Amino acid sequence: MTVPRKFLPSISSLRALEAVDRLGSASAAADELALTQGAVSRQLQTLERQLGMELVQRDQKRLALTTEAQDYAAEIRQALNQIVQSTLRLQAAPLAGSLNLAILPAFGMRWLMPRLPEFARLHPDVTINMATRLEPFNFATEPFDAAIHFGDASWPGTQSLLLKHEQLLPVCAPLLLEGRSIDEVKDILKLPLLHIQTRTSAWTDWFEQNGIEAGASLGGTIYDQFATITQAALHGLGVALMPDYLVEQDLATGRLVALHPEPVETEGAYYLVWPERKSNAPALMKFRTWLAGKAQPEDPLPR
Hints:
This protein is α/β, with parallel strands linked by helices. It has 3 domains: 5-92, Winged helix-like DNA-binding domain superfamily/Winged helix DNA-binding domain (Arc Repressor Mutant, subunit A), CATH 1.10.10; 98-164 and 268-292, 3-Layer(aba) Sandwich (D-Maltodextrin-Binding Protein, domain 2), CATH 3.40.190; 166-265, D-Maltodextrin-Binding Protein, domain 2. Helix content is 38%, strand content 21%. The protein is built from 10 helices and 11 strands. The chain has helices at residues 11-23, 26-33, 37-51, 67-92, 105-112, 116-122, 202-209, 226-234, 244-253, 282-292, and strands spanning 56-58, 63-65, 98-103, 127-132, 146-151, 158-172, 193-196, 221-223, 239-243, 257-258, 264-275. The strands form 2 sheets. Strands 3, 4, 5, 6, 7, 8, 9, 10 and 11 form a 9-stranded mixed sheet that branches. Strands 1-2 form a two-stranded antiparallel ribbon. Strand 7, helix 7 and strand 8 form a beta-alpha-beta unit. Helix 1 (11-23) crosses helix 3 and helix 1 (11-23) packs across helix 4 (67-92). The protein is elongated, with a radius of gyration of 26 Å.
């Protein structure tokens, strides 16, 4: 794709604009960029000519960016930061390359992390960089080679490897049950329910699987991550419907109690997904091959 030059300003001009916006003055930007104040001003003038619009309001004492220029600088800042991060990854990558992996925080911490030391021993030439993403994203606009994803295998433009089916247990702190009797599944409806933002229908589906018509709208508080909903359950704020691998230790120590004897498998599962265009990337191929040997739903967590 050929892009007209006016839509690709020079990095020097963009850095000057971003620095003036962030630091509030041309003199401060000049100090940071190791330029003279006049050079910063000329960079901004060059950018104005290239874009064909005014970016700076000038008076005898100081210059200030227009509102449009401030908005533009905020967007440019993200692009410059991405260039910096991409350059750092390129320079830091060993010969076999690096793998930029998006992870789900709870699954990454409790399922993936305990297994990674083995991969590091087997493939010391591969660097894995990780960042959290809770929702699917566009691989074309995000700097990731692969992602840990929960749901189904229908992420457009990707291939996938099934890692683990999810099995759920309703759990709560013992103090929540003081003076209450939970003899049947429907009795759980008498307790405050805790909901996870990424599983909006989890409670409704779970009750239906256990023969209870709970209705489409169940009250209760909503949490965005399993780390926070776990803490809410531990402090007696309600009953959480949790993946069994996340609450094994708390159940074993008695900090939480299960209100149902067996975990119930859900339709969703955890997958490794990657864009089709990167299927033959060496680092990804090594990681995928290794992970396939760990991708067994019944595989217990290492202790």
